[in-house]
Amino acid sequence: MHHRRNLYVAAFVGASLSYIFNVLAFTGTFDIFRWVVFAVLFLGFTYGFERFFGWQTDSA
């Protein structure tokens, strides 16, 4: 679980920085609520894909 947590943190930090810089570059404003929604969706999809891949590799 330790390696998985490190991957989640690294992916989250990278995606968050990318989101923040892109939002600031294209809109010039930053909304914390939209970032929270992005963070929840990002972590949810990441966890969901991990579970899906695990399910697919365990069944083979």
Which terms summarize this structure?
mainly alpha, 60 residues, 87% helix
Can you offer a commentary on this structure?
The protein has 60 residues and is an all-alpha fold. The protein is built from 2 helices and no strands. The protein has helices spanning 2-26, 32-58. The longest helix has 27 residues, at 32-58.
- Tell me the number of strands: 0
Major beta-sheet overview: none
Shape: elongated
What is the helix/strand order? HH
Quaternary status of these chains? single chain
**Uncertain ranges:** none
Number of helices: 2
Helix content: over 70%
C-alpha Rg (nearest Å): 14 Å
Proportion of beta-strand residues: under 5%
Q: What is the first-to-last residue Cα distance?
A: 23 Å
Structural class, please?
A: mainly alpha
Taking all residues together, what is the mean pLDDT?
90
How is this fold's topology laid out?
Layout: H1 2-26, H2 32-58
Helix pairs in contact: 1-2
Question: Would you kindly provide a brief summary of this structure?
Answer:
The protein is mostly helical and 60 residues long. 87% of the residues lie in helices and 0% in strands. The chain has helices spanning 2-26, 32-58.
